[in-house]
Amino acid sequence: MASNAFKTVNDQKVRGMTPGCSPLVESLPGRGTGALLFKRANESSPVCYYRYHMAGKQVLIKLGTYRRTAREVGFTLPELRDQAAALAQIAKAHGDVKAYLANQEADAEAARLKNERAVEAARLRDDEDARERRHLAEIEASRGTFGELFLDYIESRQERATVGVVKELERLYHTNMLAPHPSIMAMKARDIRPDHILAILNPIWDRGAKVQADRMRSFLSAAFSHGLRSENSVGRTSAKSYNLESNPAALVEVEKVSVPAIRALSDAELRRFWGTVETTEGIGPVMALLFKFVIATGGQRILNICQTTWDDYDLKTGTVRLIHRKGRGGQTMSRPHLVPLTKRAIAILERVRDINGCHPWPWTTTGKQHIVVSSPRHAISDWLKSKHAIIDGTQSPSFSPRDLRRTCAQLMQRYGISDQLSDLLQAHGQTGVANLHYRNNPEAALPEKRRAIELFEHALAKVLGKKQAAKVVLLSKTKS
To answer: What is the C-alpha separation between 327 and 301, in angstroms, rounded?
Structure first.
């Protein structure tokens, strides 16, 4: 039959199609492979379809626009034939080309979506990894160095320790840690090992400062103990964390070499010091009177005396009020210590009032602050260098301001003053639960202290070779 004859088209026939004309058909080689079908519905170029039959019905799949000239967009006749041949192979293998292409498109879309989801998941993982890295970097940056840990420890001591202790800690940090070992100070505190502690302590030990090496180890151990507990403390002000797991300083041992101090002035030395300190070159009048006042009050701690103001001297009761902050409690465990004054002490104080009565502190050489703890040491050094320190042709051994306290204590012991009275007068052993909670009224101890200072004054007068100055009196009975 003519309708079953193999049909072909060429470019001339396709180009010659007019709008609305009948379609042109070109059969593909082989039975049931379908055909090319060209339609021109309007003035536009003809459109080519692949035609096949499925279940007795014609199915068309658009291939594209026929390109009539080189300038037009579309496909040439050979290109359209190639497309149709490819679809014919699909028809031969799968039957329904349109359904196959739809499935392929769906599979491709699913693959595309799957790939997009995989790419998005990978991006999210990368973002999460980046956030985690930033978070870990922030944590690492927030973890304090060894130097920051020690400074944090010093800061924690501000409210509890005395100003002198804090300044000493700062000095030790700069001289024994930061200056000689900057690389160790820059290490994270959690990475410090016992060998780093030894690197700090050995140079101190090797230069002969063995006691300081032991104290330095104690401070380092206390700093790490502070770091171990501080991160879980409520109200902590420091933003640094240390992530410590152990205390490396606690694993280091320093040989105990502390030797009890035994230097005390002999009676001859005390008598010479008392009689010549005011005439020694380099020692000012206030400093000289400070030494005498310390001795006259039974060997009170010289720094506590220096820190007093005129308001601490009570004209009615004849006492001076000292504040003791010695011990672990520091500032938080400050306790008053009332010291009764003898006529000898009052006479010294009146001479000081003539010099410094216009300043807040009796014991000042500048009027701007009280005498600092290092100044008495230098003054005693000047006395030791003077001719006064040579007694019976022998140079007096070196001593420090605190040895005056020991001298007074031993003087009381030699003259039969009980240890209990001596300790009470010098504020020794006034800590503990009973004293903190029960014996905490300074005025209640005054009668016993007055008895102690009277006995001490009697002993001192004998040593100085002068008539006993007087018993304890009230300042209100003296010249105001």
So the answer is: 14
Q: What residues does each domain of the chain span?
A: 2-95, 146-251, 267-477
Structure pTM?
A: 0.55
Q: Do domains 2-95 and 146-251 have the same CATH topology?
A: no
SS in 3 state form for the chain?
CHHHCCCCCCHHHHHCCCCCCCCEEEECCCCCCCEEEEECCCCCCCEEEEEEEECCEEEEEEEEEECCCCCCCCECHHHHHHHHHHHHHHHHHHCCHHHHHHHHHHHHHHHHHHHHHHHHHHHHHHHHHHHHHHHHHHHHHHECEHHHHHHHHHHHCCCCCCHHHHHHHHHHHHHHHHCCCHHHHHCEHHHCCHHHHHHHHHHHHHCCCHHHHHHHHHHHHHHHHHHHHHCCCCCCCCCCECCCCCCHHHHCCCCCCCCCCCCCCCHHHHHHHHHHHHHCCCCCHHHHHHHHHHHHCCCCCHHHHHCCCHHHEECCCCEEEEEECCCCCHHHHCEEEEEECEHHHHHHHHHHHHHHCCCCCCCCCCCCCCCCCHHHHHHHHHHHHCHHHEECCEECCCCCHHHHHHHHHHHHHHCCCCHHHHHHHHCCCCCCHHHHHCCCCHHHHHHHHHHHHHHHHHHHHHHHCCCCCCCECCHHHCCC
- 335-340 and 319-324 as β-strands: parallel, antiparallel, unpaired? antiparallel
CATH superfamily entry for domain 2-95? Integrase, DNA-binding domain (3.30.160.390)
Mean pLDDT by 10 residues, the chain (480 residues): 68 93 92 91 94 91 93 93 93 89 92 93 89 74 85 86 84 94 94 95 92 92 89 65 89 77 92 97 96 96 95 88 65 76 95 95 94 93 96 95 96 95 86 46 87 96 72 44
Place of tokens 């230069």: 207
Write out the CATH class of domain 146-251: mainly alpha
Q: CB under 8 Å to 479, separation ≥6 — which residues?
A: 350
Tell me which CATH code domain 267-477 carries: 1.10.443.10
The pair of three-digit structure tokens given for residue 404, joined into one six-digit string: 């005056």
Token pair 């101890």 in the structure block, residue: 445
